[in-house]
């Protein structure tokens, strides 16, 4: 269930009221004439089941409410109401499967910003993964996966492609195109510094590393893992599940590969750098392909419903 708080220009209040009171997905409609001061208008509250939220919001935007007033969405965790229960039963489908596209676009747009925090997290994640590669310690790889922030831009890229939002696609590509290179450059420099201090050396990279060798040796399973990670990531985003935890799954296929590229370049081991770079490209392509496919299927299913 979602709660809508709408500021409506007075000349459109009647149309909005008719829209909300005539829909099976809407309940708990409250209209407060003249309550809004900035922007000036009438204040309208209502609750909408997730399955019908996108259609309602789309109609409100067609009425120009977004342009001349405002539309705010809030998630409702608990609702004790017979009217809400009836609305849930009337609308076909399950709320957990419903996609509220405006909510998804807003979330991915915010996570796709190329900010100082994003770059810092990317640098920290890549450096930690680089050390984990040299020490052949999966625990450090896992730590890097937790810190990695690239799930946001990857999700934003998928949403932008499916929804044809060019600005969102550009923003996501910028974050990825800057974030990964910056993280890798800093990791190269960090590797040189640690080597000068005698903490790591080239022999550690060339030694047999049974726990992390998969990072620079791509195969068919690399595509499979990346594809499954993309499916899980998109489902977590659209169904409002634990996106942070699924972001860790996304990172297992990206940040370690980028870190291995950086460490291999730092020591001039070009064959390993090339293998890691190929692994990174394969995984990103698989994630985006899976994400676009998943969102397209959900969009088609929503229209059918």
Structure description:
This is Membrane protein. Keywords: Membrane, Transmembrane, Transmembrane helix. InterPro entries: DUF389. It comes from Actinoplanes nipponensis. The protein has 305 residues and is an alpha+beta fold. The protein folds into two domains: 2-98, Alpha-Beta Plaits, CATH 3.30.70.260; 103-304, Glycerol uptake facilitator protein (Up-down Bundle), CATH 1.20.1080. The chain has helices at residues 13-21, 50-62, 65-68, 82-90, 101-111, 116-135, 138-147, 151-163, 166-196, 202-206, 220-238, 243-251, 255-267, 270-304; strands at 2-8, 26-36, 41-48, 70-75. A four-stranded antiparallel β-sheet has the order 2-3-1-4. A hairpin with a 4-residue loop joins strand 2 (26-36) and strand 3 (41-48). Helix 7 (138-147) crosses helix 12 and helix 13 runs antiparallel to helix 14. The protein is elongated, with a radius of gyration of 24 Å. The chain starts with a strand and ends with a helix.
* Number of helices, where a helix is a run of at least 4 consecutive DSSP H or I residues: 14
Shape: elongated
CATH architecture field of the largest domain? Up-down Bundle
Structural class: alpha+beta
Range of helix content:
55-70%
What's the N-to-C terminus distance? 18 Å
CATH class division of the largest domain: Mainly Alpha
Beta-strand residue percentage: 5-15%
- The overall strand count is 4
Q: Which fold name fills CATH's third level, the topology of the largest domain?
A: Glycerol uptake facilitator protein
Q: Unreliable runs, pLDDT <50, ≥5 residues?
A: none
Helix and strand sequence: EHEEHHEHHHHHHHHHHH
Number of domains: 2
The largest β sheet comes out as: 4 strands, antiparallel
From the alpha-carbon coordinates, what is the Rg to the nearest angstrom?
A: 24 Å
Mean of all residue-level pLDDT scores: 86
**Strand order, largest beta sheet:** 2-3-1-4
């Amino acid at each position: 269930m979602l709660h809508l708080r709408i500021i409506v220009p007075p000349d459109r209040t009647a149309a909005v009221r008719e829209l909300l009171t005539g829909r099976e997905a809407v309940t708990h409609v409250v209209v407060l004439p003249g309550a809004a001061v900035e922007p000036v208008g009438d204040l309208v509250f209502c609750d909408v089941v997730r399955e019908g939220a996108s259609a309602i919001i789309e109609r409100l935007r067609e009425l120009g409410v977004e342009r001349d007033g405002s539309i705010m969405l809030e998630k409702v965790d608990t609702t004790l109401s017979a009217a809400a229960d009836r609305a849930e039963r009337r609308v076909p489908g399950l709320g957990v499967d419903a996609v509220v596209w405006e909510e998804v676009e807003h979330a991915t747009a915010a996570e796709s910003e190329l900010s100082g925090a994003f770059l810092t997290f990317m640098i920290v994640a890549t450096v930690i993964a680089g050390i984990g590669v040299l020490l052949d310690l999966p625990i450090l790889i896992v730590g890097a996966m937790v810190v990695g922030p690239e799930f946001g831009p990857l999700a934003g890229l998928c949403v932008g492609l499916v929804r044809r939002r060019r600005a969102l696609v550009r923003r996501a590509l910028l974050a990825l195109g800057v974030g990964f290179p910056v993280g890798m450059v800093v990791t190269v420099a960090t590797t040189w510094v640690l080597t000068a201090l005698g903490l790591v050396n080239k022999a550690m990279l060339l030694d047999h590393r049974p726990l992390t060798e998969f990072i620079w040796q791509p195969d068919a399973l690399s595509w499979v893992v990346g594809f499954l990670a993309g499916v899980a990531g998109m489902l977590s985003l659209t169904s409002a599940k634990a996106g942070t935890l699924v972001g860790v799954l996304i990172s297992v296929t990206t940040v370690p590969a980028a870190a291995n590229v950086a460490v291999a370049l730092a020591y001039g081991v070009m064959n390993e750098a090339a293998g890691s770079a190929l692994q990174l490209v394969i995984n990103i392509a698989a994630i985006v392909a899976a994400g676009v496919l998943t969102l397209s299927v959900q969009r088609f299913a929503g229209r059918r419903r």
